[in-house]
Amino acid sequence: MKHQIRSSLGGPLFLSAMAVQFLISTSTFMLFTALPLYFQTQGAPKTVAGLSTTLFAIAALLARPLGGVLFDRYDRTLVFHLGVGTLIGATSLMALPAGIPYLLTCRLLQGVGFSLFTTGMGVLLPDFVPQGRVLQAIAIQGLVASLGPALGGPLAVQLLPAGFELVVVTSTLIGIAGMALAVPTFPRTPSSRDGEGSASSQDLPHRLWSRLFHKEALAPSAFALLLGLSYGAALTFIPGYALTRGIPNGGLFFTSFTLAVVLTRLFFGKVQGDLSLLTSGSFIVSGISFLLLIPLSGYLHLLVSGFLYGAGYGVAFPILNTGALMSAAHHRRGAAASTFFTAMDAGVATGSLAAGGIAQMCGFPAVYLTLGIGLLGGGAALLLPEVRGARFLRTLD
């Protein structure tokens, strides 16, 4: 069976897919920024602000394994549209006048929808482009996705003084536009079960594990977990931390972040060979960016930190993501994507919750010190001989 529906990176199909990515990301990340700030204005403790991101990530985390199975066994496009509809529907429900528990429940539904959306993009995207351009395509997708926090974050901060409901309505309308564009963009792409083989000789736990997760994707997923820890803390607390330092619009951190991602992604058309040094350096730069946040003193300081974080994250994420996806056969790509994004979600959930607890007890500087040291450690680990020879890096040669 033919699975590939190839398009050049400048072709209308790929560009339309990127437009869907941009609209859904912008819609989603408006709430990532606005909801913690809204909770803070309502007098809620920092742990509740962190919980708004944690519950989203936990729901996405729990939905990932099932999503991987659905994408591998059923019509991938149908599952993808189901995820987008769930995400935007849950966003619209947040406009209803209700309390914090209700909003947190909506965040759970958003997490489920977002997990299906992001897993679906990872599963479907390699079918859109020539085989040798997958890394570049995923780099471009990550670039477009990063425009979500860059635009959605500052936009949410600007709209929030006029009312949280206005933020929700705007986010919903942007999401509906993305959902409408997704219908003609993604044609029916049924999955293949060829090569699954018989599992009758395996014990049940092993069969369940192999169905939900992909072994070859575990190594890049471990480093994705560390990236997720930093990303969850950044999304949830940097705008609030900036306010405590006399910086009204901390969302500009993500604008600088995006600029760096744009610049780093320009190099991915010619990336080849041993990527371990490049990936290690990206973790080290990300670690330095968090250490620079400790003495945050103004907008320039904030923008420099955001730029460095974007440069590190912008290099590391597409390499790890592509390594996880391309280590799997086509019929197991759903499990590989699920494994990778499960790790990322676990990091976001743990990072935002732990950062909230640390900030409550020790203050924000302790959060960024901890994350900075952790990312530097990840950069050092990528230089170990065992990691440098790992398959997920060799598959990109």
UniProtKB/TrEMBL annotation:
GO molecular function: transmembrane transporter activity
InterPro entries, per the entry: MFS, MFS_dom, MFS_Exporter, MFS_trans_sf
A Pfam entry, by short name: MFS_1
Domain (Major facilitator superfamily (MFS) profile) ranges: 13-389
UniProt keyword annotations, A-Z: Membrane, Transmembrane, Transmembrane helix
Superkingdom of this protein's organism: Bacteria
TM ranges: 12-35, 47-66, 78-96, 163-183, 217-238, 250-268, 275-294, 300-320, 340-359, 365-384
Protein's UniProt name: Major facilitator superfamily (MFS) profile domain-containing protein
